[in-house]
Amino acid sequence: MDSLTLYVLLVHVSFSFMLSCPVAVQGSSPDAMFVFGDSQADVGNNNYIKTIAMCNVPHYGIDYPGGKPTGRFSNGKNIVDFLVRGSSPAAMFVFGDSLSDVGNNNYFITIAKCNFPHYGIDYPGGKPTGRFSNGKNFVDLLAEKLRVPSPKPYLSLFKTDNPLEFLEGVNFASGSAGILTSTHQGLCIPLKTQIDFYSLVFKALVEKLGIFQVQRFISSSILYINIGSNDFQVYDGTCVLTYVRLLVCELEGELKRILELGARKLVFIGTEPVGCWPAVRASNKSPGDCNKEINEASSLYNEEVVLLLKKLQSEYSDMRYSFFHSYRVFDKFIKHPENYGFNESKAACCGMGNLNAEFACNPLAKYCSDRTKYVFWDGWHQTEATANLLVSMAFDGLPPNVFPVNVRELSGLNAENAHVIDQ
Hints:
Keywords: Hydrolase, Lipid degradation, Lipid metabolism, Signal
Strand content: 5-15%
Strand order of the largest sheet: 2-3-1-4-5-6-11
Family: Belongs to the 'GDSL' lipolytic enzyme family.
GO molecular function: hydrolase activity, acting on ester bonds
Protein name: GDSL esterase/lipase
Helix content: 25-40%
Largest sheet: 7 strands, mixed
Oligomer: single chain
Signal peptide: 1-20
């Protein structure tokens, strides 16, 4: 048998194998992956044959661990490397507001910024990064649990000439953002625009890698959404049900857009008791008390979002989701802080005025010495200690705190050494 005949036979057998290979059960981890393709998937085969189609020279591999060329036609890892993370998700794509922003608002003119002290005081390096926290936020800590990088802010990447950077995931969240474009308009990147940006990322990856590889990559990634809190801060007291249904109607359209662009694993974080945030308490008609109307709207919103997710799952049969009932959990933190290691759940750690929340945290503001004892960092945002506890509950918790599955189950990570959180 000559070499050409052998080559054709091997290609035929390989192709037949791919067609007949059984599809893995959703949620289970495959035993191995067999890769067929071109330079987009090659991890070094061409190093072993005589060909001019080689890339085992600088500057290939400049961002690969070790900084040396490997035979990958990339500056770093390629899509195969990202798909083979053990049983971890391929990446995480983040949509939301200041509870999830890791620096997007640093890149445009807005008063909704936190790139100054004392923000970031407990973040590695001790400097502000654009996170509305004393340290890491929910997204950073969840990424650690998922064993993926915490995605970089989109506005730090959008001018890249290498779309493969998007394979590390992207964070589109923006401080002050809401579901409605009118919420804090001009100060933030609203949800609709965040998903417009996601669409651009998807298209850039398709141009580079092809639709099949990108759909597979996105479907194995986590799409994280935490949005709605700011819409309640600007709530004008009109009919609660009408307002909530307006929000959920807008949200449905945007979630369908990301589902049409390949998303299949959604992590949705419900809104907190926004009416009990220190800044809201401080500005209430009865200072110090929670705003009951805002809390009612936030609670109803969560109920409607759960119904929406069930509806979407009936329309997209291969969609799976994890809903974290942040309202329910946060309500316990506020009412019984001592049960969770806190001793202050009304006042902010950093700020000025009543409850340390009449004026925002700033370089002249005082801040608490032990951030681990405070639920709130500033008038609107949680401390890293609070975020860490919330992430543990979302990741390994049980219903009714997180359902129909927790984030660990959704991601496909095995439960070995898991510590179930049920509080």
